[in-house]
Specification:
CATH superfamily: Glycerol-3-phosphate (1)-acyltransferase
CATH topology: Glycerol-3-phosphate (1)-acyltransferase
Shape: globular
CATH class: Alpha Beta
Largest sheet: 7 strands, mixed
Number of strands: 9
Number of domains: 1
Strand content: 15-25%
Order of helices and strands: HEHEHHEHEHEHEEEEHH
Number of helices: 9
Helix content: 40-55%
Distance between the termini: 44 Å
Strand order of the largest sheet: 1-9-6-2-5-3-4
Structural class: alpha/beta
Radius of gyration: 18 Å
């Protein structure tokens, strides 16, 4: 079977560049410093029999990545929805490198298979991770899917925001950043309850306000993107 140039390029990158890049990322992340009480707070939440979706913003994965292995080690692995696309395959490698798990979905916006797989993972006691303003934004504006998934799984929403004083910030719409080496990370954990008989629209607006308040509390680098509006 003939391999197209783009596919060959992807295979070469995947074979030659991704492994050393992941090694560098692992070493980079190991320099991060965290308050031990933050992980104790996570452990306290996860010790309960409650089912959870972790709610975060699309620009914060490199801060959250420090907790993937911890959650796995306490028996509540984080599960992330990925697609069969090239970006999805790369995401799969990153998540698994740091101790998370993945559920394969589809790049089609109409597909529900991946979402159902994530709901099933949460029902089994795993932690479903939702980047609620992804995949294309706008920044810090939750998509209503969190409401449907939480209802389907009978799960609570555990909001996690991360802040640091120094970071390398990329030019993406989501304010994507990676904390600078040896950064001290600040975590904010909070339970967001969907109120009885609360509409999807009302819950979405309330979640947005809650997340922005949390970002300000931890002084997240994502706020810089929100201020510039660029």
């Amino acid at each position: 079977m003939r391999i197209l140039p783009r596919e060959l390029k992807f295979r070469l990158i995947n074979a030659l560049l991704v492994p050393p890049a992941l090694l560098i990322l692992r070493l980079w992340v190991r320099t991060f410093r965290t308050d031990p009480s933050a992980f104790q707070d996570i452990a306290n939440y996860l010790a309960r029999p409650d089912l959870y979706f972790i709610v975060a913003l699309h620009g914060e994965p490199f801060g959250l990545i420090t907790g993937l292995r911890f959650c796995r080690d306490v028996g509540r692995p984080v599960c992330v929805l990925t697609s069969p696309s090239r970006d999805g395959q790369l995401m799969d490698k990153i998540v698994r490198t740091f101790g998370g798990e993945t559920v394969l979905g589809s790049s089609s916006s109409k597909a529900v298979e991946g979402s159902l797989g994530l709901v099933e993972a949460v029902k089994q006691g795993k932690l479903g991770l939702l980047a609620v303003d992804g995949p294309r934004g706008p920044l810090a504006v939750p998509k209503p899917g969190f409401y449907r998934l939480a209802k389907a799984a009978g799960a609570r929403l555990l909001c996690i925001t991360v802040g640091c004083d120094h970071a390398l910030q990329f030019g993406a719409w989501d304010g994507l950043y990676i904390p600078a080496p040896f950064s001290r990370l600040r975590f904010k954990l909070s339970i967001f309850e969907i109120l009885p008989d609360e509409t999807q629209e009302a819950a979405t607006g309330r979640l947005q306000r809650h997340l922005i308040e949390c970002l300000r509390e931890v002084r997240s680098p994502v706020l810089r993107k929100m201020k510039t509006g660029a």
